[in-house]
Amino acid sequence: MEERKLTCIGCPMGCPLTVVMNGKEVVSVTGNTCKRGDVYARKEVTYPTRIVTSTVRVSGGSFHMVSVKTKEDIPKDKIFECVRALKGIQVPAPVHIGDIILKNVADTGVDIVATKNVE
């Protein structure tokens, strides 16, 4: 049996979690004060994912860069591939919040979207 310690990020409480695993199987999660902690812990130890935030260049706009993020979380092991995919991208202005900047980043099925307006 393996024991892993985590701090929950499912809500502002930041509960200290203890996950007991038998191989790749979660045996128990303790320390959480809400259901989100249990869900977070199980996902984090079996299939960790993250939201990726970055910027891309804008041509002809009021700003030279626009902030972007993955529309959903992606597998943690795809983060660097995602960032590399964004490196050479330049989009024309105007850009609006929610505009898709890059479809299916790193073959994850998740799109990169703008998080700022650039006129």
Describe the structure.
It holds the Pfam family DUF1667. This is DUF1667 domain-containing protein. Helices cover 17% and strands 38% of the residues. The protein has 119 residues and is of the alpha+beta class. It has a five-stranded mixed beta sheet, with no helix packed on it. It has a three-stranded antiparallel beta sheet with strand order 1-2-3, covered by helices on one side. The protein has a two-stranded antiparallel ribbon with strand order 4-7. It is elongated and about 55 Å long.
Order of helices and strands: EEEHEEEEHEEE
Strand content: 35-45%
Overall 3D geometry? Answer: elongated
Number of DSSP-assigned strands: 10
Give me the Rg, rounded.
18 Å
The largest β sheet comes out as: 5 strands, mixed
Spatial ordering of strands, largest sheet: 8-5-6-10-9
Low-confidence parts: none
- What's the overall average pLDDT, rounded? 97
| Class computed from helices, strands and strand pairing | alpha+beta
Instruction: Summarize the amount of helix as a percent range.
Output: 10-25%
Termini Cα gap: 56 Å
Number of DSSP helical runs: 2
Element layout with pairings:
Layout: E1 2-7, E2 16-22, E3 25-30, H1 35-46, E4 49-50, E5 53-59, E6 65-70, E7 74-75, H2 79-86, E8 90-92, E9 100-102, E10 112-114
Parallel strand pairs: 5-8
Antiparallel strand pairs: 1-2, 2-3, 4-7, 5-6, 6-10, 9-10
Give a quick summary of the entry:
By secondary structure, the chain is of the alpha+beta class. It has two helices and ten strands; from the N terminus they run E-E-E-H-E-E-E-E-H-E-E-E. It has a five-stranded mixed sheet with strand order 8-5-6-10-9, with no helix packed on it.
